[in-house]
Amino acid sequence: MRLERVRLHVLRMRMKEPFRTSFGVEEEKRVILVEADVEGAVGVAECVAMVEPLYNEEWVEGAFLMLRDFLAPALLGADFDHPREVAPKLDFIRGNRMAKSAIESAIWDAYAKARGIPLWEALGGSWRPIPVGISVGIQPSPEALVRKVEGYLAAGYRRVKLKIAPGADLEYVAAVRRAFPDVPVMVDANSAYRLADADHLARLDDYDLMMIEQPLGHDDIVWHARLQSRLRTPICLDESIHTPEDAEKAIAIGACRVVNVKIGRVGGLERSLELHDVCRAAGVPVWCGGMLETGIGRAHNVAITTLPGFTLPGDTAASSRYWDEDIIEPPVVVTPEGTILPPKGPGIGYEVRWDRIARVREAEAELVPS
Ligand SMILES: [Mg+2]
């Protein structure tokens, strides 16, 4: 196989409602789509870097240049037998995993399409309805949060993830727990606390939470182990797991009991498979996180979630949660049972709506082998 052409598209899309986390508020999504031509098939994927480098060091403008000037040129014209060989070809560039993931995942999609098989099958997954949860941003009051959660439960979501930050934590979690005693609830702190907050965080143990996600530093593993020894609630690591080896280390020192897999955060589908395998071998459950993706990123998340280690509901909500009009057809929908049914068509299995993309496109670039 040979990568024959790469197209980059930068889109600006209005979100249905602002999403607030401990990072700030997102109202508008700027996103890079990558198209990769392989063996006559065109694969597509998205780069989940945010507009500003707040989740990690990457951002949209930087990722665009990274893809255009380094990653695409490194791969264009290169021969490979299988998309698993793509990630190692990008190892010479440090970091920049979201940009790497976008081009690598697009090649996977093209590979699956060229063979006429679904992406989940190419990844070694097996078809099953995927249980999904929903991630709820920080609300103005505990009462407002309870009302939001009520709506999502009625829509079928099976577990609720609450974003928390100092000043918007115990009271909010308590209100949700009081209103819905049996619903699986987890919280995500996005690194908003410090080890000195351990006593405060231990009070979350009263609410029977599935897990607390990334309470401490975005780059920390060691203090999380210290904190985990003081909490009954399992810690899940997100931001601080960049590689499969990070997960091995975290598990070895007891820094987490659950791992969030984000394809973009770890550099693509190959690394996600490796991370999945490391966790599964250690008996640590994984679930698929979300980065407020368009339908294209969502489709990749659905595909990876068909692997057997994904035993906890992920964050891949319906397209309608974030978008009035998604850029794929049909949109990702959540069944009344709170599941997504992986499509059975080739590649990501959803049709890309290029007509809608053309309306929200700000910039594009086409690259061919030199
Ligand atoms: Mg998270």
Walk me through this protein's architecture.
The protein is an alpha/beta fold. The mean pLDDT is about 95. A seven-stranded parallel β-sheet has the order 5-6-7-8-9-10-11. A four-stranded antiparallel β-sheet has the order 3-2-1-15, sandwiched between helices. Strands 4-13 form a two-stranded antiparallel sheet. The longest helix has 19 residues, at about 95-115. Helix content is about 35%, strand content about 20%. It contains 13 helices and 15 strands. Helix 1 (about 60-75) crosses helix 3 (about 95-115) and helix 9 (about 245-250) runs parallel beside helix 11. The radius of gyration is 20 Å and the shape is globular. It has two domains: about 5-115 and about 350-365, Enolase-like, domain 1 (2-Layer Sandwich); about 120-340, TIM Barrel. Bound molecules: magnesium ion. Magnesium ion binds next to loops.
* CATH class membership of the largest domain: Alpha Beta
Structural class: alpha/beta
Mass-distribution shape = globular
Any idea what the CATH architecture of the largest domain is?
Answer: Alpha-Beta Barrel
Number of helices: 13
Strand proportion: 15-25%
Keywords for this entry:
370 residues, alpha/beta, Enolase-like, domain 1, TIM Barrel, 2 domains, seven-stranded parallel beta sheet, four-stranded antiparallel beta sheet, 13 helices, 21% strand, binds magnesium ion
